[in-house]
């Protein structure tokens, strides 16, 4: 499917907000709409924030609270002045005629507004997240219409966002979808566990290749070479001295920290005497 | 060699924790330096677990647990990332509701920073507008707390205390969420929730910050803030979207958590610790001066009274009327007692720094052992 137009990069915050506002929608409303905020680049549009806008939709007409939208945008601008309105979103699978009207309104606010649909009703067993940009079509002068052309959607994260999302991913596993924040040593432990798992998978693959069950793939073999070479070859004594000096540094710092804590506790007792 | 491990602790739980760290542990027994390191690790793990459990059980305040929506976490991270570079703090308001003894935080919105001295910028107005608008879209508009980002863990300050006190005074269950972006960037989300202990609330209410007041309430730096455990919750829809993300996302999983470099973070933390300790020592010097001058004054008072009595006795013996009792308090004005609250705050801050440093070193020790295990098979 040939795609013209900018690439849409979405941050996970936006999708979480959309899902949340869908869950909180008014009785009787079948879908939610809202404004997308972000930054525009030469070839891409980065969506970093959004807020929902109350609207009423019935068979023949649609009413969007424009005042509200403007107000919210002003408020948001105070916090992040670099974000601009770049489009709008709607939940639901299809693009209706009302969407066209709403899109027109948004084209007054932004140059080439992006329309994002998020299928929260999960009609096709997946949450289809699609972006469109509108293009004029038809016979000029007579029947003019608007066509929505799809765009590629990518997900981008900041580094810290990635870590947050990883943590959130872990809530999928638990039955009531919760997850506590683990203590630090346990985190290292679980990271080690994950690496162990990965190593077992790799080992299993190698066994299979060796016993001929799976065809050897050269590129995978090259990756494996890289992996094995990554463990630095340092003579044992050097490594041991490095390790010990590092350990000693850390131990010294721990000792100092404990000492300081003991000191302030003592100081407090003395003052209170 | 397994004796030291068991002897230095009493809790079987923690030894099990250690064992679960993996088969890496027994190999280190061979090396000399690491035996000590292991003991230290055990001590740290042991001291943390019962303390955390004790803290959770002994919370005598209204809130025993905090439940945060994933959305809030993402928003806080994004806010810092975009608006707070360097050591500026970013702040925002938390919205949610209280269910039984759980505080549920369902949404949040950021506060613009005060860097541009906008004379006509009205914080209250902004907040009111925001809450009104959010109410239109059915978002919980109940204020339940606020969040703040911190730089290397330095958040125990007068400003925080005052803000949290006013929040907690108005709303019983409010908390402050402290987000540490630098620690998060190292691999694990660092989000902590704090409340003021009831004892501290009492003191703030009375505004009695002198040492007698603090002594009366028996507040130490450890009982200033209490940490409330956090649980993250996601609705079903967001879980669906998370699955989708995992599918479509092309960003490979980075393993910052397992990076071995500790130098820069440790340096910075220790530097801040040193600054605080300097502040503390200055404070101590001030207090010493004060107590010294107080005792000197007492002495002078005694001497004066004695002289007075002597004179009076002499006068009586001579038959003259005794000198009137002069108002001692006017003669000997007691020196200004230094405010103890700052000391308490500094002590609290130092304590936090030490805790963070210890957590960090514990993690790094674990990682070093892992590296050794990877290398050890070959050597």
From TrEMBL, chain A:
The keyword Protein biosynthesis applies. Residues 8-138 form the MPN domain. It is found in: Cytoplasm. It holds the Pfam family MitMem_reg. PROSITE patterns: MPN (PS50249). It comes from the Eukaryota. Keywords: Cytoplasm, Initiation factor, Protein biosynthesis. The keyword Protein biosynthesis applies. InterPro entries: eIF3f, EIF3F/CSN6-like_C, JAMM/MPN+_dom, MPN. GO terms for biological process: formation of cytoplasmic translation initiation complex. GO terms for cellular component: eukaryotic 43S preinitiation complex; eukaryotic 48S preinitiation complex; eukaryotic translation initiation factor 3 complex, eIF3m. One of its GO terms (molecular function) is translation initiation factor activity. Its main location: cytoplasm. Component of the eukaryotic translation initiation factor 3 (eIF-3) complex, which is involved in protein synthesis of a specialized repertoire of mRNAs and, together with other initiation factors, stimulates binding of mRNA and methionyl-tRNAi to the 40S ribosome. The eIF-3 complex specifically targets and initiates translation of a subset of mRNAs involved in cell proliferation. PANTHER family: EUKARYOTIC TRANSLATION INITIATION FACTOR 3 SUBUNIT F (PTHR10540:SF6), EUKARYOTIC TRANSLATION INITIATION FACTOR 3 SUBUNIT F-RELATED (PTHR10540). Component of the eukaryotic translation initiation factor 3 (eIF-3) complex, which is composed of 13 subunits: EIF3A, EIF3B, EIF3C, EIF3D, EIF3E, EIF3F, EIF3G, EIF3H, EIF3I, EIF3J, EIF3K, EIF3L and EIF3M. Belongs to the eIF-3 subunit F family. This is Eukaryotic translation initiation factor 3 subunit F. The gene is EIF3F.
From TrEMBL, chain B:
It comes from Astyanax mexicanus. This is Eukaryotic translation initiation factor 3 subunit H. Its main location: cytoplasm. SMART domains: JAB_MPN (SM00232). Residues 66-200 form the MPN domain. One of its GO terms (biological process) is formation of cytoplasmic translation initiation complex. It is found in: Cytoplasm. Belongs to the eIF-3 subunit H family. Residues 297-337 are annotated as: Disordered. One of its GO terms (molecular function) is translation initiation factor activity. One of its GO terms (cellular component) is eukaryotic 43S preinitiation complex. Component of the eukaryotic translation initiation factor 3 (eIF-3) complex, which is involved in protein synthesis of a specialized repertoire of mRNAs and, together with other initiation factors, stimulates binding of mRNA and methionyl-tRNAi to the 40S ribosome. The eIF-3 complex specifically targets and initiates translation of a subset of mRNAs involved in cell proliferation. It holds the Pfam family eIF3h_C. Residues 297-307 have a biased composition (Low complexity). It comes from the Eukaryota. Keywords: Cytoplasm, Initiation factor, Protein biosynthesis. Component of the eukaryotic translation initiation factor 3 (eIF-3) complex, which is composed of 13 subunits: EIF3A, EIF3B, EIF3C, EIF3D, EIF3E, EIF3F, EIF3G, EIF3H, EIF3I, EIF3J, EIF3K, EIF3L and EIF3M. CDD domains: MPN_eIF3h (cd08065).
């Amino acid at each position: 499917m040939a795609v013209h137009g900018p690439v849409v990069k979405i941050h996970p915050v936006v999708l979480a907000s959309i899902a949340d506002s869908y869950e909180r929608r008014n009785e009787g409303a079948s879908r939610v709409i809202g404004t997308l905020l972000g930054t525009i680049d030469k070839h891409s549009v980065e969506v970093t924030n959004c807020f929902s806008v109350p609207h009423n939709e019935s068979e023949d007409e649609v009413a969007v609270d424009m005042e509200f939208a403007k107000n919210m945008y002003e408020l948001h601008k105070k916090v992040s002045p670099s974000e601009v309105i770049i489009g709008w979103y709607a939940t639901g699978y299809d693009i209706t005629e009302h969407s066209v009207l709403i899109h027109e309104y948004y084209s007054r606010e932004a140059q080439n507004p992006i329309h994002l649909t998020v299928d929260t009703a999960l009609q096709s067993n997946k949450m289809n997240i699609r972006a469109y940009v509108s293009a004029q079509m038809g016979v000029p002068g007579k029947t003019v219409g608007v066509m929505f052309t799809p765009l590629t959607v990518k997900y981008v994260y900041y580094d810290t966002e990635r870590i947050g999302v990883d943590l959130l991913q872990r809530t999928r596993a638990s039955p009531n979808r919760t997850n506590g924040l683990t203590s630090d040593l346990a985190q290292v432990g679980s990271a080690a566990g994950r690496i162990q798992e990965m190593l077992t998978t790799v080992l299993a693959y190698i066994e299979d290749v060796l016993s001929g069950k799976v065809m050897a793939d050269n590129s995978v073999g090259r990756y494996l070479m890289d992996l094995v070479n990554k463990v630095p070859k340092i003579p044992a004594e050097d490594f041991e001295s490095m390790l010990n000096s590092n350990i000693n540094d850390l131990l010294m710092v721990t000792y100092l920290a404990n000492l300081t804590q003991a000191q302030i506790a003592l100081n407090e007792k003395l003052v209170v005497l | 060699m397994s004796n030291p491990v068991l002897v230095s602790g009493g809790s079987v739980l923690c030894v099990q924790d250690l064992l679960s760290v993996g088969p890496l542990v027994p190999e280190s027994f061979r090396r000399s330096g690491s035996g000590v390191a292991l003991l230290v690790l055990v001590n740290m793990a042991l001291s943390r677990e019962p303390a955390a459990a004790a803290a959770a059980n002994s919370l005598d305040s209204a809130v025993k647990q905090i439940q945060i929506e994933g959305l809030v976490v993402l928003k806080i991270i994004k806010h810092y990332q975009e608006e707070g570079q360097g050591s500026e703090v970013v702040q925002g308001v938390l919205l949610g509701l209280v269910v039984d003894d759980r505080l549920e935080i369902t949404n949040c919105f950021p506060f613009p920073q005060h860097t541009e001295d906008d004379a006509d910028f009205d914080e209250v107005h902004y907040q009111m507008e925001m809450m009104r608008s959010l109410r239109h879209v059915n978002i919980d508009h109940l204020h339940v707390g606020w969040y703040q980002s911190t730089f290397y863990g330095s958040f125990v300050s007068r400003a925080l205390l005052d803000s949290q006190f006013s929040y907690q005074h108005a709303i019983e269950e409010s908390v402050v969420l402290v987000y540490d972006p630098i620690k998060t960037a190292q691999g694990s989300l660092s989000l902590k929730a704090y409340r003021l202990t009831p004892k501290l609330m009492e003191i703030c209410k009375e505004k009695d910050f002198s040492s007698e007041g603090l002594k009366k309430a028996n507040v130490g730096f450890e009982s200033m803030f209490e940490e409330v455990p956090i649980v993250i919750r996601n609705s079903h829809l967001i879980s669906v979207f998370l699955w989708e993300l995992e599918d479509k996302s092309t960003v490979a999983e980075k393993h910052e958590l397992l990076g071995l470099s500790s130098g820069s973070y440790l340096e910075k933390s220790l530097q801040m610790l040193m600054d605080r300790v300097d502040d503390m020592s200055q404070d101590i010097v001030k207090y010493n001066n004060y107590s010294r001058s107080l005792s000197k004054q007492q002495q002078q008072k005694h001497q004066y009274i004695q002289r007075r009595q002597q004179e009076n006795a002499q006068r009586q013996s001579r038959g003259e009327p005794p000198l009137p009792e002069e108002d001692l308090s006017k003669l000997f004005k007691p020196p200004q007692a230094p405010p103890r609250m700052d000391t308490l705050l500094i002590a609290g801050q130092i304590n936090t720094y030490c805790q963070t440093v210890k957590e960090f070193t514990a993690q790094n020790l674990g990682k070093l052992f892992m590296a050794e295990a990877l290398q050890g098979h070959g050597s």
